[in-house]
Amino acid sequence: MSHELWFRTPAPDWFEALPVGNGHLGGMVFGRIADERIALNLDDVWSGDGPRTLQVPDGPAVLADVRRLLLEDGDRLAATERTRALQGPLVESYQPLGDLMITLPGADDFRDYRRSLDLRTGIAAIDYRQGGVAYRRESYVSTPDQVLVWTIKADVPGSVDLSAALTSVHPVESTVVDSRTVGITGRAPSDLTIEYRESPDPIRYEDGRGIGFGVVLRAFAEGGTLGTGPDGITVEGADSVTLVLSAASSFQGWKVPPGRKLPLPDAVRLVDAVAVDKLRQRHLADHTVLYDRAGLTLGTAVDLPTDERVRAVGAGGNDPDLAGLLFAFGRYLLMASSRPGTQAANLQGIWNAERRPMWASDWTNNINTQMNYWLADVTGLRECFDPLTDLLEGLAESGRETARILYDAPGWVSHHNADLWRATWPVGDGGDDPVWAMAATCGVWLSAHLMEHHRFHPDEDWLRDRAYPILAGAAEFVLAMLVEDRDGRLQFVPSTAPEHHFLLPSGEKASVDLTSTYDLWLIRELSANLSEAENALGLSSDLTTRLSAAVDRLPAIGLTDDGRMTEWPTDWPPSEFDHRHQSHLYGLYPGNQIDPVRTPEWAGGVRKSLELRTSGRPAGGWTSAWLIALYARLYDPQKAADVVRDYTSRLVAGNLLHRDGDIFQIDANFGMTGAIAELLIQSHTDVVRLLPALPAEWPNGSYHGLRARGGLSFDVTWQDGKITEALVRADQSGCFRIALGATAEPVEVELSVGDARHLV
């Protein structure tokens, strides 16, 4: 089982550097010899100067116009354009923090170089020899101590000379804190134009406005001399050096402007609190216990550099262990970018080098944020889910005001984009395409994750206190948005199929319509989730009764004449038959309303839809992950394996981060781990099925710690595609139906809390 990425050369650019992080503080380690760079991020350093007030004075009147245009006039193009009047400001952008630059004089003549990232320990390292001296450097970010640690050791005493400095793309001031500590202070942009909008002055700093930050660097040297000055820290003739870096921001919560004082003292307190001789031990104790909860072994480990393995797969080679490493890497990245008390993982997790990153490096809530968390529960990272709950609570609070202003509706709404300040409105200021801006059920989708989390980890208190109010608020909003059409059916208006236009008979493109299939799946699922939550809590509300009755009056899920799943209420021709979104197939995955056994006609509609969707251009990164999960639910391992191979050969950098040209989105990495898990265990029906869609390319393997809904975890081993060992552990008591294989009949297994039972 591979736990390590390794390379023979330093990273050529930011995309190939090695990520470290603790959810709050992140770094990209380049592994350069003479001029090491660690690019830094802090999860709450964004552009902007606090929450904004939505200025849409006539939202309900606009909504009435849109409904009239759709329900009475049937004018989809005019309705699409009219929704632009509902758009509020664009979101703010996630920001880089700075760089730790370390210079080692004369270190450009080296040999025996090896750069690595040990996923199990969370330590990025480089080893090399220079002038007869062996050096080892390590970098990691500690969760217990909330600092980044960089060390260098030499096997010959007195061989370490270096200088270290802090820099930033933002305007900063440097300071000497004490005889071994330096720092910088600055502010993120107070105003910034998102990257896809033209502006003569896109990045603006205003005195006293914007999120302030402080970064502190302290050195500890064994032997030699250490000094500090305006240019940073210098060390000469040391045996070893440890650099400890801390950072703090003036962000005080999404509801208030940031603090005006620069937070350098907060960063100093963090480094003051560390016990340098305990840092590594405390980091390992925290990291390994979480990482070791689950793991996957596929075939035999290949002892070649990771980038060479990627190129070999691209050339047609077979490397099952690389798929296992992809799986492990996704878990590592979530651990490094989403921990209790931090912001949720955004479009780039926690790592971003640009002041105007692609799509603001925000939370994009029509698939991307959701995909970030597909892996959390099934791969044993329960704690890493916490920031998503925090994000939803903020969106639900902010979204109540948006629902009132735009729609005169109760409950809460969240549209396509969100940022640190919990924007929940359609973004664009009237200038963005409604095809993505006008997505009013993103909050409904996000709320589904709460019920799924409870299924994996039943917790009545959490369900009552945190999840249920969010589910209920989403239901209130949906009920208010349902209107009756001429046939007496209820329609959610306005509705879209995320980011996909349809073609009108005139040849023009539109995107807003009556209830899309995507929205039908979400509303049906919300009703079932609310009912399940109330049953678990012993509640019975009028809200659940009304939503259930409303679902009975929704339009039926349809199939086109050629057997595909419909995407819009009319069989409009899609503007892109191979579009990246699979939203109309939500009922299969991540939903559970379609099943090849229970609903074969719908499953057939999904297959026909996928034939069309995959018949054109190759899939992108996160699209590939969704395709794999869909094929897994259809019990089609060969098509899933083909996508895994295609993704690995085209869409990852040498360090396995998703890369498509100069675009990095981390949802693909997270989604691949969640989708691979779906090939190995499924529990979305009343049967827990082990190895439901095992690719032939993975004939031998094992996993441990993969979880099923109901509070179960499994260790499974297989040979020649057949299960040879299967152990189940129970966190909950009950009678469970478990199937050992893709076609095996399920057996009933009675388990009590704490049971561990061999099934084979």
Automatic annotation (TrEMBL):
Residues 5-253 form the Glycosyl hydrolase family 95 N-terminal domain. Pfam families: Glyco_hyd_65N_2 (PF14498), Glyco_hydro_95_C (PF21307), Glyco_hydro_95_cat (PF22124). GO terms for molecular function: hydrolase activity. Keywords: Hydrolase. Residues 276-680 form the Glycosyl hydrolase family 95 catalytic domain. The keyword Hydrolase applies. The keyword Lyase does not apply. This is Glycoside hydrolase family 95 protein. The lineage of its organism: Bacteria, Bacillati, Actinomycetota, Actinomycetes, Propionibacteriales.
